[in-house]
C-alpha cells in the first residue's frame, strides 16, 4: 500500500511544480481569451456600424442589381476576416427573421453581394457536426434554394443536430411538400424539433396532406406523434379512422396525441369512443381523455360523467363536474343539486367551476 | 406625430426608427418595458408600437396601461413574433388598436401607422 | 508506543487515500465539464427560444414564488415575473403567513379579489386562507395564495397543489431572472432522448451583489466589492460551471437550487412534494424524485442549464454567511440520512454507486474530515511526530491543486459566459482564489462544523432572519476542500 511516508518529498515538489506550471499556463490562456474577446468585440462594433449605415439605404428600397456596392475591408472574403463575416451573417439572419417584403429581399441581396454564401457552403461541407448544422441553417435562412438537393440528403442524418437543421431546411425550401422526408425517417424527432417544424409551416398556406394516412402508420413513433399534431392543427378530417386506430397503439405517447387530435377531427360518435378509451387508459392518459371530452361530450355521456363524480379522486370529480357544466343541457342545475345534497367537496368544486376559475 | 417604440432587439428597433423618421415622425425609442411605461406617462406619444416579450414589463401590460390613461387618447400597435390566435385575441381584448406579426413588412408597418393616425 | 504508531499510520493512510480519491474526482469533473459545456454551447448557438413562448405545443408552466415578509419589494418582483412572457404560463405567488402587509400590497396593486377555489390537497399542507385572482386582463396569469405560515417547503407544497400546469418552476421571489429564463429552462423537457423522461432541470445561480439593478433587471454585471460575496461568486462559478455541468453530464445531479429549478409536477406530487422536516428541502426533493423513478423502473434524466439565468444577493457578512452554511450542512446531513438506502446500492445505478457516495464523502463529510485532520495534525505536532519537510511538501501540493481547480473554473467562465468582462475583475477573482485557503475556506469549514453540532443537538430552528428570501436561496455547492 502506498503511504504518505513512502512518497519522496522531491516527487511531491515535482508534482507541485507541474501543477504551478499548468496553473500559469491556464492564467496565460485566460489573458489571451480576454484579449481575443475584446478584439472580437471591437470588430463586432465595426460590423454593426457598417450595417447601421447600410440599413438606412436598404430599407428604402434604393438598392438593386445596378447599385454600386463596396464591401468594407474588414468584411472582404478571406480567412483573416472569417470571424467578422460570420458575425455579419448572424446579424443579417437576425434581421431577416423579423422582416418580409422588400427589406428582406435586400438583406439576401447584400448577403449574396458580399459572397457570404461561400462561407455558409464551406460550413455546410465541414466535417464537424456543429459547423455543418450551422451551415445548413444559414443557407435556408438566406433562401439559397440551389442547395436544396444537397441538404436533402441529411434529413435522416446520424447526427441529431444536422438532421434537425436539414429537416427545417427542406420545409423552408419546399413548404408542405418538404414533409416527404417523413416517408423515410427512421431516426428520432424530439418534441422540440416537432415544434420547430410546425413553426416553420405556420406562415404557409396549408397544402399537400396526401401522405398523412401513411405517416400515421409509420413504424417510427415520433413520425406518428408529429403527424397527429399536424392532423390536429390543420383539422384533417379525412384521416379520422387512422387517428382512431392510433388509440390502440402500445405507445402511450401516441395514444395521448391521438386523444387530443380527436377534439378537432372527431365526429358525433367520438365521445363514445373516448368513454371506452377512458376505461382502458393509463393513469397518466386518463386526464387527457377527460380534457378531450370536455370539448365534445353530450348528454349521451351523462351516465359515465356522473360516475366520475363518485370517483374518490377529487381531481377526477373536478374534471367530471366541469365537463357536465360545459356539455350537458341541465349541467348547472344537476351540479347544484349535488352541491346541496352531496359531500362538502361537491359544493366546493361547484363553486370553483361556477365562477369560471379555469385553473 | 410622436411615436414610441418599445422593442428589445436593437437592429429591429433601429430599422423601424429609420423608416418612421424618414416619414417625418418624432421617435422615442425604448428597449425595455418599465422605461417605455415611464416615457409614455411623461412624454405622451401619439402612437405606441410595442413588442410583447420585453424585459421588466410585458408589452401586454403596456397596452393596458396606455388604455387606462385618461390624459390622452394614445393608439397602440403590438408588433410581435407571436401570431397565435389566443395571443392576438388577448392583445385586442386589452385594447390594442392593431396587431402585426413578425416577420413584418416595413411598408405595411408605415401604412398601418398612417391608418392609426387617421383614426385619431 | 507501537499502538500509537499504528493509529497514526492508520489515520495518515486514511487521510491520504481520501485526498487521492478527491483529487481524482476533481480532475474527472473538470475534464468532463469541458466536453459537456462545449456541446451545450454548440447546440444552442443559434437556438430561437422564442418559439417556445407562443407555440401551442410548448409545455405548460406554473411558476411558484413563495414570499415571506417581502412587503417592500413584492409588487416590483411580481411585475418582473409577470413580464416573463410565456403563453402557457401561470404565476402562483404564495404568501406564507407574512407578518407584514405583503398581501394587501398585492391586492391593491393588481386589483385582486378572493375567489372560490377548490384546492385539491394532494400533498397535505397548512391551511390555505384564500386564493386571489384579478379581473384585470393584463394580470390574468397571476394567482395569489394566502396561507398559514409553515415554512418554505410547506409554501411550495401549497403552490404545487394549486398549480394547474404540467411543470412547476420554483423560484425565490426576490431573485432576478433573465427575460428568457423560463424558455431556456423548459427546452430540455422537450428533448427527451432514448425515452428517458426529463423529471427536473436546474439552473445557474449567480451573485448579484454590486451589480447594477434597474426595474428588476441586471443592467450591468460587476464582481462583488465585498470580500465574502466575491468569494461566493468564485465558489458559485466553480460549483456551477464545473461541478454541476459534469454531474448533469453523468446524469448524477443530486441538487437543484431552490432559488431556480423546474420539475415535472406529477412526479413531484407522486413523491409527496417537499419535505417539511429538513432544512435542505430542495436537495431532498431531487434525491427522492430520482429514487422514485428508479423504484418505478422508469428511465429518467435530471438536466441542467449552464446559462446564467438567475441572480441573487449573497450574504455579505460572516454572521449570515455562517448561518447559511450551517443550514446547508444540516440540510445535506438530513438528506443523506433520509436516503441512506441509496449508499452503494447498485439498484440505483449512478445515483447509488457514484452520486450518493460522492456527496456523502466529499460534500457532507469533507468539513468533518478536514477538521479531524487538523486536530490529528495538532496532536502529532505536539508529540513532535511531524516530519516538517513532508508536511510542507504536502501542504504546498494540496494548496496549489486547489488553486489550479479555481483558476481552471475562472478560465472556463471567461471562455464561455464571461460575465466579468473587465480584466481588472478577472484579476481580482484570481486574487480572491489565492486568498481562499487562508480566509474563506477555514470559515466555511468552521460554519459546517457548527452545522454538525447543531444537527446533533437536533436543533432545527430556522430563525426569523434566515427565513427571509435570499439567504435561503441556494443550497450546498461543491466547495473546494483545499486546506486538507
From TrEMBL, chain A:
Keyword list, A-Z: Membrane, Transmembrane, Transmembrane helix
TM annotation in the entry: 12-30
Domain of life where this protein originates: Bacteria
SUPFAM superfamilies documented for this protein: ARM repeat
InterPro entries: ARM-like (IPR011989), ARM-type_fold (IPR016024)
UniProt protein name: HEAT repeat domain-containing protein
From TrEMBL, chain B:
PTM sites of type 4-aspartylphosphate: 51
Pfam short name (any one): Response_reg
GO molecular function, one term: phosphorelay response regulator activity
Stored CDD domains: REC_OmpR
InterPro entries: CheY-like_superfamily, Sig_transdc_resp-reg_receiver, WalR-like
GO biological process assignments: regulation of DNA-templated transcription
Keywords: DNA-binding, Phosphoprotein, Transcription, Transcription regulation, Two-component regulatory system
Keyword Nucleotidyltransferase (UniProt): no
Signal sequence segment: none
GO cellular component assignments: cytosol; protein-DNA complex
Keyword DNA repair: no
Protein name: Response regulator transcription factor
Residues covered by the Response regulatory domain: 2-117
From TrEMBL, chain C:
Transmembrane spans: 6-29, 364-386, 392-417, 429-449
Source organism, top-level taxon: Bacteria
Domain Glycosyltransferase 2-like: 62-194
Keyword Glycosyltransferase: yes
Keyword list, A-Z: Glycosyltransferase, Membrane, Transferase, Transmembrane, Transmembrane helix
GO function term, MF aspect, one: glycosyltransferase activity
Pfam families: Glycos_transf_2
Family according to the record: Belongs to the glycosyltransferase 2 family.
Name of the protein: Glycosyltransferase
Organism: Chitinophaga agrisoli
Record lineage: Bacteria, Pseudomonadati, Bacteroidota, Chitinophagia, Chitinophagales
Amino acid at each position: 500500500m502506498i503511504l504518505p511516508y513512502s512518497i519522496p518529498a522531491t516527487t511531491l515538489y515535482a508534482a507541485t511544480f507541474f501543477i504551478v506550471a499548468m496553473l500559469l499556463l491556464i492564467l496565460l490562456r485566460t489573458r489571451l481569451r480576454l484579449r481575443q474577446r475584446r478584439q472580437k468585440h471591437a470588430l463586432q462594433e465595426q460590423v454593426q456600424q457598417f450595417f447601421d449605415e447600410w440599413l438606412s439605404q436598404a430599407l428604402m428600397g434604393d438598392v438593386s442589381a445596378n447599385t454600386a456596392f463596396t464591401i468594407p475591408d474588414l468584411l472582404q472574403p478571406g480567412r483573416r476576416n472569417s470571424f467578422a463575416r460570420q458575425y455579419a451573417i448572424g446579424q443579417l439572419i437576425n434581421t431577416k427573421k423579423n422582416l418580409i417584403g422588400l427589406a428582406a429581399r435586400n438583406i439576401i441581396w447584400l448577403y449574396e453581394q458580399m459572397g457570404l454564401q461561400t462561407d455558409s457552403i464551406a460550413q455546410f461541407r465541414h466535417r464537424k457536426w456543429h459547423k455543418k448544422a450551422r451551415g445548413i441553417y444559414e443557407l435556408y435562412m438566406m433562401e439559397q434554394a440551389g442547395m436544396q438537393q444537397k441538404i436533402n440528403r441529411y434529413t435522416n442524418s446520424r447526427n441529431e443536430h444536422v438532421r434537425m437543421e436539414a429537416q427545417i431546411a427542406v420545409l423552408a425550401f419546399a413548404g408542405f411538400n418538404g414533409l416527404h422526408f417523413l416517408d423515410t425517417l427512421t431516426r428520432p424527432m424530439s418534441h422540440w424539433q416537432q415544434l420547430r417544424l410546425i413553426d416553420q409551416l405556420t406562415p404557409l398556406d396549408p397544402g399537400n396532406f396526401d401522405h398523412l394516412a401513411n405517416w400515421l402508420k409509420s413504424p417510427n413513433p415520433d413520425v406518428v406523434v408529429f403527424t397527429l399534431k399536424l392532423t390536429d392543427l390543420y383539422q384533417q378530417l379525412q384521416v379520422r379512422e387512422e387517428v382512431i386506430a392510433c388509440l390502440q397503439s402500445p405507445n402511450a405517447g401516441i395514444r395521448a396525441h391521438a386523444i387530443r387530435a380527436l377534439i378537432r377531427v372527431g365526429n358525433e360518435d367520438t365521445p363514445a369512443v373516448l368513454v371506452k378509451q377512458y376505461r382502458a387508459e393509463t393513469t397518466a392518459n386518463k386526464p387527457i381523455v377527460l380534457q378531450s371530452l370536455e370539448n365534445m361530450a353530450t348528454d349521451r355521456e351523462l351516465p359515465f360523467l356522473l360516475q366520475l363524480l363518485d370517483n374518490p379522486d377529487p381531481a377526477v370529480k373536478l374534471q367530471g363536474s366541469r365537463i357536465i357544466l360545459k356539455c350537458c343541457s341541465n349541467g348547472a342545475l344537476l351540479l347544484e343539486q349535488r352541491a346541496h345534497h352531496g359531500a362538502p367537496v361537491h359544493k366546493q368544486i361547484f363553486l370553483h367551476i361556477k365562477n369560471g376559475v379555469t385553473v | 406625430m410622436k411615436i414610441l417604440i418599445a422593442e428589445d432587439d436593437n437592429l429591429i428597433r433601429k430599422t423601424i426608427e429609420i423608416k418612421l423618421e424618414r416619414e417625418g415622425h418624432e421617435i422615442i425609442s425604448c428597449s425595455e418595458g418599465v422605461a417605455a411605461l415611464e416615457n409614455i406617462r411623461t412624454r405622451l406619444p401619439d402612437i405606441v408600437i410595442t413588442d410583447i416579450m420585453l424585459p421588466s414589463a410585458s408589452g401586454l401590460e403596456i397596452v393596458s396601461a396606455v388604455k387606462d390613461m385618461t390624459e390622452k387618447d394614445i393608439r397602440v400597435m403590438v408588433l410581435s413574433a407571436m401570431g397565435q390566435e389566443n395571443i392576438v385575441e388577448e392583445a385586442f381584448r386589452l385594447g390594442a388598436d392593431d396587431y402585426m406579426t413578425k416577420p413584418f413588412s416595413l411598408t405595411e408597418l408605415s401604412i398601418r401607422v398612417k391608418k392609426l393616425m387617421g383614426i385619431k | 508506543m507501537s499502538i500509537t504508531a499504528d493509529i497514526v499510520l492508520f489515520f495518515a493512510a486514511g487521510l491520504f487515500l481520501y485526498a487521492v480519491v478527491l483529487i481524482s474526482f476533481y480532475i474527472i469533473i473538470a475534464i468532463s465539464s469541458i466536453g459537456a459545456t462545449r456541446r451545450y454551447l454548440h447546440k444552442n448557438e443559434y437556438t430561437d427560444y422564442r418559439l417556445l413562448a407562443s407555440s401551442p405545443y410548448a409545455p405548460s408552466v406554473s411558476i411558484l414564488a413563495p414570499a415571506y415578509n417581502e412587503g417592500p419589494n413584492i409588487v416590483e418582483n411580481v411585475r418582473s415575473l409577470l413580464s416573463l412572457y410565456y403563453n402557457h404560463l401561470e404565476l402562483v405567488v404564495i404568501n406564507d403567513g407574512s407578518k407584514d402587509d405583503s398581501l394587501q400590497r398585492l391586492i391593491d396593486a393588481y386589483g385582486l379579489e378572493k375567489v372560490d377555489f377548490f384546492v385539491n390537497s394532494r400533498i397535505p399542507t397548512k391551511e390555505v386562507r384564500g386564493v386571489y385572482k384579478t379581473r384585470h386582463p393584463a394580470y390574468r396569469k397571476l394567482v395569489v395564495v394566502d396561507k398559514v405560515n409553515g415554512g418554505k417547503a410547506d409554501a411550495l407544497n401549497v403552490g404545487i397543489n394549486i398549480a394547474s400546469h404540467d411543470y412547476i418552476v420554483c423560484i425565490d421571489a426576490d431573485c432576478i431572472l433573465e427575460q428568457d429564463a423560463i424558455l431556456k429552462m423548459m427546452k430540455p423537457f422537450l428533448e427527451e432522448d432514448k425515452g428517458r423522461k426529463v423529471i427536473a432541470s436546474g439552473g445557474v445561480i449567480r451573485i448579484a451583489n454590486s451589480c447594477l439593478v434597474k426595474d428588476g433587471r441586471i443592467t450591468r454585471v460587476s464582481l462583488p466589492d465585498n470580500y465574502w460575496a466575491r468569494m461566493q461568486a468564485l465558489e458559485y462559478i466553480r460549483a456551477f460551471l464545473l461541478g454541476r455541468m459534469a454531474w448533469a453530464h453523468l446524469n448524477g445531479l443530486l441538487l437543484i437550487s431552490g432559488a431556480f429549478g423546474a420539475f415535472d409536477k406529477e412526479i413531484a406530487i407522486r413523491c409527496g412534494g417537499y419535505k417539511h422536516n429538513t432544512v435542505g428541502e430542495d436537495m431532498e426533493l431531487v434525491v427522492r424524485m430520482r429514487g422514485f423513478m428508479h423504484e418505478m423502473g422508469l428511465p429518467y434524466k435530471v438536466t441542467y442549464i449552464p446559462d446564467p439565468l438567475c441572480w441573487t444577493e449573497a450574504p455579505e457578512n460572516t454572521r449570515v454567511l455562517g448561518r447559511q452554511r450551517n443550514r446547508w450542512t444540516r440540510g445535506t446531513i438530513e438528506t443523506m440520512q433520509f436516503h441512506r438506502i441509496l449508499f452503494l446500492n447498485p439498484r440505483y445505478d449512478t445515483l447509488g454507486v457514484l452520486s450518493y457516495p460522492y456527496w456523502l464523502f466529499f460534500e457532507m463529510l469533507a468539513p468533518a474530515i478536514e477538521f479531524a485532520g487538523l486536530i490529528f495534525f495538532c496532536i502529532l505536532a505536539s508529540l513532535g511526530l511531524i516530519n516538517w519537510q513532508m508536511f510542507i511538501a504536502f501542504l504546498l501540493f494540496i494548496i496549489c491543486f486547489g488553486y489550479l481547480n479555481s483558476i481552471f473554473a475562472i478560465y472556463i467562465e471567461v471562455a464561455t459566459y464571461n460575465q466579468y468582462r473587465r480584466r481588472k475583475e478577472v484579476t481580482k477573482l484570481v486574487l480572491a482564489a489565492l486568498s481562499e485557503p487562508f480566509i474563506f475556506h477555514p470559515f466555511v469549514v468552521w460554519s459546517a462544523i457548527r452545522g454538525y453540532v447543531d444537527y446533533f443537538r437536533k436543533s432545527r430552528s430556522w430563525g426569523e432572519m434566515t427565513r427571509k428570501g435570499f439567504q435561503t436561496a441556494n443550497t450546498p455547492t461543491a466547495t473546494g476542500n483545499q486546506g486538507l
